[in-house]
Amino acid sequence: MAVRQAIGAGQPLEIVGHGSKRAIGHRLATNALLDLSGLAAVTAYEPHELILTVQAGAPL
Amino acid sequence: MVVVLPDTTEQVAAVLKYCHAERIKVVPRGAGTSLSGGALPLKDGVLLGLGKFKRVREIDYDNRCVVVEPGVTNLAISQAVEGRGFYYAPDPSSQIACTIGGNIAENSGGVHCLKYGMTTNNVLGCEIVLMTGEILRIGGKAAEAAGYDLMGIITGSEGLLGVITEVTVRILRKPETARALMVGFSTVEDAGRCVAEIIGAGIIPGGMEMMDRPAIHAAEAFVHAGYPLDVEALLIIELDGPGVEVDALASRVEAIATGCGSVNCRVSNSEDERLLFWAGRKAAFPAVGRISPDYLCMDGTIPRGKLAEVLTRIRGFSEKYGLGVANVFHAGDGNLHPLILYDANKPGEMDKAEAFGADILRTCVELGGVLTGEHGVGVEKRDLMPAMFTEIDLNQQQRLKCAFDEEGLLNPARCFRPCAAAPNSAACMCAAANWPSRHSVLIVTDGS
């Protein structure tokens, strides 16, 4: 939805997680921010498959 | 058909540049051991044989890598460095014949990829020639490369993106010791549970293979490895590393197997015995060839936990089609190799075997697995791709093809179904996906 809106409005979009490196370098000149830090859940853990499924904003 | 056997990267570039200008299709081919028809020649194309590219260019022990030409066999890389105690980890069963260029094209695996990774985890860089004749260098000797991970895209691209003319692979120190356990189970379910329990206990064996009753009997009759004949499933589990660690792990694995209801368990006590345990597994394919005039070797992957379920389903298909099947698995990573037994001289049997195989692969996808483990898609599984991928997925893969070879001249009609309107044209698929490719601009400027 956010990506579609940004494309529709022709707006550049800054995508950010917990922003641990955001202070480095130039700030992006965008009006829109897509914050993925809320996507922090571990959605599946299957030890017998050695698989962990997590959302993009999950802290390591 | 024309066969060309170039000797240098420049010759490959010249051939591809010419074919690109003349709109001639090209099929790159190494040793031709593909099990998915990935390098089948075309009657109206050029077959680009890379058999002359068989030099080891550099052995760099300091950086633990080897630079080779694509026609070097998989085993020859290990042989080139074994004197210093090193080896190249991926070990497909055809390793004495298959070449490293083809291994990259198919992202080949092998018995030991459970612990040491597939080809993609062991390749550091390559030189490829694009269909236009442009020469591209990807990656290098370092583990990290800047920019996109193009090495990850080239590995497993089945000859659709470029012709590999040089490869840099990682080499590893040979494990100090290795011991194998041979464990029999009275049910496939118990064996499947044992595989899951071992992995779940945090033990990653060097290899973990399963054979079902027909495969055990065929292998035992062929090589006399001492396999038990009164079991439904046999696991061969190899543990490698420092001797003390291996001994400790062997006891733990033995205990887990007992807990899962194993009916017999042997641990190798010498290198000869370890090799004997493996001999039957390694000879399983030719062994099955002795009990059936023909067989179709399938290759699919499932989550480990579904082993027993998929085997039950395969048995059902076996009854439905009236064809026998012997199962050999890389159980540790859920990679199945059902061998469907048939007789090509009996009318209709080959079609039945193929339908049987397609049912197995659809089942793999249905159970959360994938269409292929290590043999690639090629022409064999091309038409099953929509069972696994949505149209959006397929279009995105097709766009990647177009970024490297927009006319679709390189290894055409592999992996992706050719468009009916313009067979073998990659670009037309992009057009079908309403993608504004560079090619559509080209058509305009052509004025045609």
Q: Total number of β-strand segments of chain B?
A: 18
Low-confidence segments of chain A: none
Report the β-strand fraction of chain A as a percent range. Answer: 25-35%
The helix/strand class of chain B is: alpha+beta
Number of helices of chain A: 1
**Secondary-structure element order of chain A, N to C:** HEEEE
Largest interface, counted by CB within 8 Å of the partner chain's CB: A-B, 5 and 7 residues
Number of strands of chain A: 4
**Poorly predicted residue ranges of chain B:** 426-448
Radius of gyration of chain A: 15 Å
What does this structure look like?
The complex is a heterodimer of chains A (60) and B (448). Chain A has 1 helix and 4 strands. With 60 residues, chain A is of the alpha+beta class. In chain A, the strands form 2 sheets. In chain A, strands 1-2 form a two-stranded parallel ribbon. Chain A has a two-stranded antiparallel ribbon with strand order 3-4. Chain A is elongated, with a radius of gyration of 15 Å. The relative contact order of chain A is 0.23. Chain B has 448 residues and is α+β, with helices and mostly antiparallel strands. In chain B, the strands form 4 sheets. In chain B, strands 11, 12, 13, 14, 15, 16, 17 and 18 form an 8-stranded antiparallel sheet that branches. In chain B, strand 4 (56-60) and strand 5 (65-68) form a beta hairpin. In chain B, helix 7 (213-223) packs across helix 10 (284-291). The longest helix of chain B is centred in the last third of the chain and has 18 residues, at 349-366. The radius of gyration of chain B is 23 Å and the shape is globular.
In short:
The complex is a heterodimer of chains A (60) and B (448). Chain A is an alpha+beta fold and 60 residues long.
Topology:
The complex is a heterodimer of chains A (60) and B (448).
Chain A: H1 2-9, E1 13-16, E2 32-35, E3 42-46, E4 51-54
Chain B: E1 2-4, H1 9-22, E2 25-29, E3 45-49, E4 56-60, E5 65-68, H2 74-81, E6 86-87, H3 100-106, H4 113-116, E7 123-129, E8 135-139, H5 150-154, E9 163-170, E10 172-173, E11 177-185, H6 188-200, E12 207-212, H7 213-223, E13 233-241, H8 243-259, E14 262-267, H9 271-282, H10 284-291, E15 294-297, E16 300-301, H11 307-321, E17 325-330, E18 335-342, H12 349-366, H13 385-388, H14 391-404, H15 426-432, H16 438-446
Parallel strand pairs in B: 1-3, 2-3
Antiparallel strand pairs in B: 4-5, 5-9, 6-10, 7-8, 7-9, 11-13, 11-14, 12-13, 12-17, 15-18, 16-18, 17-18
